[in-house]
Design brief:
This protein is mainly β. It has strands at 3-7, 12-18, 23-29, 32-37, 42-48, 50-54, 61-64, 68-71, 76-81, 85-91. The protein has a single domain, classed as Jelly Rolls. The protein is built from no helices and ten strands.
């Protein structure tokens, strides 16, 4: 039904589930700096808080609650979190 994931010594936690058509995770991040790697294309929406994101070849951008960014498959991106933040990530 649901799978739970924990990363970076418990500072990032998520619950994985399937939408009607695609897999997704909903999770929370504690303040810190993280690097995430992707296998599939991802669309990440900030639910509350904010995320400072550096995508490959781009300058850092701050995404606020309600904003979405996309990450290409087979890449990585840097995340700087200044406040506890919730997110929704849809894969594929």
């Amino acid at each position: 039904m649901f799978n739970t994931n924990e990363y970076f010594d418990g500072k990032v936690k998520s619950i994985a589930f399937n939408t009607a058509t695609l897999p997704a995770t909903v999770g929370v991040m504690a303040p810190g700096d993280y690097v995430f790697n992707t296998a599939e294309k991802e669309a990440m929406t900030v639910v509350s808080g904010s995320l400072n994101i550096t995508l490959p070849g781009k300058e850092q951008h701050c995404y606020q609650a309600g904003e979405t960014f996309e990450v290409a498959a087979n890449s990585s991106f840097d995340v700087n979190v200044n406040e506890e933040t919730a997110y929704l990530c849809i894969y594929g």
